[in-house]
UniProtKB/TrEMBL annotation, chain B:
UniProt keyword annotations, A-Z: Cell membrane, Membrane, Transmembrane, Transmembrane helix, Transport
Species this chain originates from: Paenibacillus rhizosphaerae
Membrane topology: Multi-pass membrane protein
Localization terms from the record: Cell membrane
Family: Belongs to the binding-protein-dependent transport system permease family.
Keyword Membrane included in the entry's annotation: yes
InterPro entries: MetI-like, MetI-like_sf
This protein's name: Putative aldouronate transport system permease protein
Keyword Cell membrane recorded: yes
Superkingdom per UniProt: Bacteria
TM helices/strands, residue ranges: 19-43, 86-106, 118-140, 204-227, 267-287
Major location category of this protein: membrane
Domain ABC transmembrane type-1: 83-285
Length: 356, 302
């Protein structure tokens, strides 16, 4: 799933009194918005006839009457077919030896040759390890922090300061990946970088942070947290705002302390949201963003920074080894899909929360 | 401890609670400083003198204010080209994306559209599975879009997430009565969209415009894989080559000029970051306002 930053999904639905509140969350990437969508659970009137007619008759009628709507849908649908579904067909490339002259469909079938080559390649384990360690680290460190941040922001009573904190922590989200990596490089630069100036001030040796493979994951993860924690916290803040106020009154009457209130009211109230976000994060471990890793990569830290996505780019587009790169990419997509389905199924069984 | 039940307003806090709140405030102030500091530092560096930046004299506020970095920046051809390209891509890309998104989102919000759930499934499936980098690249190549401006505007024009939020806005915020009334008056669907739906949908269109615009302005990946000619590069790609790959055009010169050039190159990086981020951060307060609106989409007029 390289072309998408990280996928986003419609999120949890929970029945509450008479209203269906569905909270949809964008996991990460560009342009996320949360919607608290309260729709009265009144059965909607059907625009079609009440008479019992076959589906196709309804379809025909609807098309005749609303042909303009169907016309409008065509260009966007074509977009999805051409740029999203046709590539899925093109993925048969993974089972062929690509030949420029014969094209994708004329190239000879080779079965699982490219997959076998990949699995036998000693790089396979390194790539898998790097991908999983990087995203595992990101989840372990990056997942709890926005929750804590949201719980803390939620405690603030002054409206001004609350808004200010939210605005400031949210801001880095709008910085582009290139600029983000540029900032990281300037701050960590071996000679004049801020981090080394501070180290020198305390009499310590300069460190070439980006040249040290051991530092790579920490740099990636913590700069990511710096950039997205405020954004992710908004999701939890929205969930916190939706907690039944009578619960707080009850807690007050019972004389709960602030911490007890957080522990017994706030946290349980946002558990469904937490579970959903966790599913999305775990379901995306293989789809860790190409963009930032690629920019942070250099020959010195490549031992730890080469992940499947960057490898596909290098092999496929730079070395023009299309079939092999497609096989590697397909392997990644399939594993990711399986992971997502598994985690979703587990969460459904264990907590009754799932993304669909 | 006094408890005021009816108002629920005044409640005397215990010592522990005040301590707890004190800790929360302290941590959040530190968080705010940690987020703001790099941003202020870069802004300050960009308007300091080259010598002050490279000798590490800048800590927080600008030292020997000079706009040398920006002067150099605006005199370099590739940066200006990149800037203009990015403006062009952002404007055109946003227009295309928003139009296409509304074109699919509105019909999908109508119950009379037969098979809309199937359409919706077709669209959302692309969020969890994709053909991958190379197969997509092949499609773009087959369409002869490689190394054309269209490669940045079309292949990622619609984001599924935007379709979902736009659709749920239309579903919850366009009253069914309006549709019924206009149908009785014999109003066509297109006309209904033009004269009823769009005027009522300004908040969601604003959200779409801002999100697509920020995304397009910040994007570099499509440009990296689809573009070859430097005169088509957006600013982000130019930025990458100057800051991350450290390509500053060299040449033989005496030591003094060399040092100056290096200092200037360093300064240029800060100025570039400022110039590339400023447009987004300037509109950010507005974006945030619409974010809140986006969050409340549907919840007000359920």
């Amino acid at each position: 799933m390289y072309l998408f930053k990280r996928p986003w999904y419609p999120l949890c639905s929970s029945k509450k009194e008479n209203a269906v509140i569905s909270l949809r969350i964008h996991a990460d990437g560009i342009g996320g918005i949360i919607i608290l969508n309260k729709q009265a659970a009144i059965p909607m009137k059907r625009e079609s006839n009440a008479r019992k007619v076959s589906y196709w008759q309804i379809a025909g009628k609807s098309m005749k009457r609303h042909w303009q709507l169907y016309l409008l849908v065509i260009p966007p649908l074509l977009f999805f077919l051409i740029f999203k579904y046709y590539p899925m067909l093109n993925a048969v490339l993974a089972f062929k030896d690509y030949n420029v002259i014969k094209g994708i469909w004329g190239s000879p079938w080779v079965g699982f040759k490219h997959f076998e080559l990949f699995f036998e390649n000693p790089l396979f384990w390194t790539l898998l390890k790097n991908t999983l360690l990087l995203s595992g680290y990101l989840i372990l460190a990056g997942f709890p922090i926005p929750i804590i941040l949201a719980l803390m922001i939620n405690e603030l009573r002054g409206n001004r300061f609350k808004k200010f904190v939210q605005m400031v922590t949210f801001a880095p989200y709008f910085i582009s990946t290139v600029v983000m990596v540029s900032i990281v490089m300037l701050f960590l630069s071996p000679r004049l970088g801020f981090a080394n100036v501070v180290l020198n001030y305390f009499g310590l040796e300069s460190v070439n942070f980006l040249g040290d493979p051991g530092m790579f994951r920490s740099i990636y993860v913590w700069s990511d947290i710096w950039q997205t924690a405020g954004y992710s916290a908004v999701i939890y803040l929205a969930a916190l705002a939706g907690i039944d106020p009578t619960l707080y009154e009850a807690a007050k009457v019972d004389g709960a302390s602030r911490f007890q209130k957080i522990w017994h009211v706030d946290l349980p109230g946002i558990v469904p949201t937490i579970v959903i976000i966790l599913i999305l994060n775990v379901g995306n471990v293989m789809a860790i963003g190409f963009e930032k890793v690629y920019l942070l990569q250099n020959p010195l830290n490549q031992v730890n920074s080469e992940i499947i996505a960057t490898y596909v780019y290098r092999i496929g587009l730079l070395n023009a080894n299309y079939s092999f790169a497609t096989a590697v990419g397909l392997f990644n997509s399939v594993i990711n899909l399986i992971l997502l389905l598994t985690v979703n199924g587990l969460a459904k069984r264990l907590t009754n929360n799932s993304i669909w | 401890m006094t408890i005021q039940l009816a108002g629920g307003k005044a409640i005397k806090e215990s010592k522990g609670d005040r301590l707890f709140l004190g800790i929360v405030y302290t941590i959040l102030i530190l968080v705010v400083l940690a987020v703001l500091y790099p941003l202020v530092y870069i802004l300050s560096s960009s308007i300091s003198s080259p010598a002050a930046v490279t000798s590490g004299k800048v800590w927080l506020w600008p030292v020997d204010i000079s706009f040398e970095g920006f002067r150099v920046l605006f005199s370099r051809q590739e940066i200006m080209t990149g800037y203009l390209n990015s403006i062009m891509y952002t404007a055109a890309g946003t227009l295309i994306s928003v139009t296409l998104t509304v074109m699919i989102a509105y019909p999908l919000s109508r119950r009379s559209l037969f098979g809309r759930n199937v359409f919706m499934m077709i669209i959302t499936f692309t969020m969890i599975f994709s053909g991958g980098l190379i197969p997509t690249y092949m499609v773009v190549k087959d369409l002869h879009l490689i190394d054309t401006r269209w490669a940045l505007l079309i292949p990622n024009a619609i984001w599924v997430w935007q379709v979902i939020i736009a659709r749920s806005f239309f579903q919850s915020s366009i009253p069914g009565e309006l549709l019924e009334a206009s149908e009785i008056d014999g109003c066509s669907d297109i006309r209904f969209i033009r004269s009823v739906v769009l005027p009522l949908s300004k908040p969601i269109v604003a959200v779409l415009v801002l999100m697509y615009a920020v995304g397009q302005w910040n994007a570099y990946f499509d440009a990296l894989i689809y573009l070859r000619s430097a005169d088509l590069f957006p600013l982000q790609l130019v930025l990458r080559s100057i800051i991350i790959q450290n390509n500053s055009s060299g040449g033989t010169m005496d030591a003094m000029a060399m040092v100056q050039k290096q200092q200037l190159a360093e300064l240029l990086k800060y100025a570039l970051i400022v110039v590339a981020t400023l447009p987004v951060l300037v509109i950010y307060p507005f974006v945030q306002r619409y974010f809140v609106q986006g969050m409340l989409v549907g919840s007000v007029k359920g």
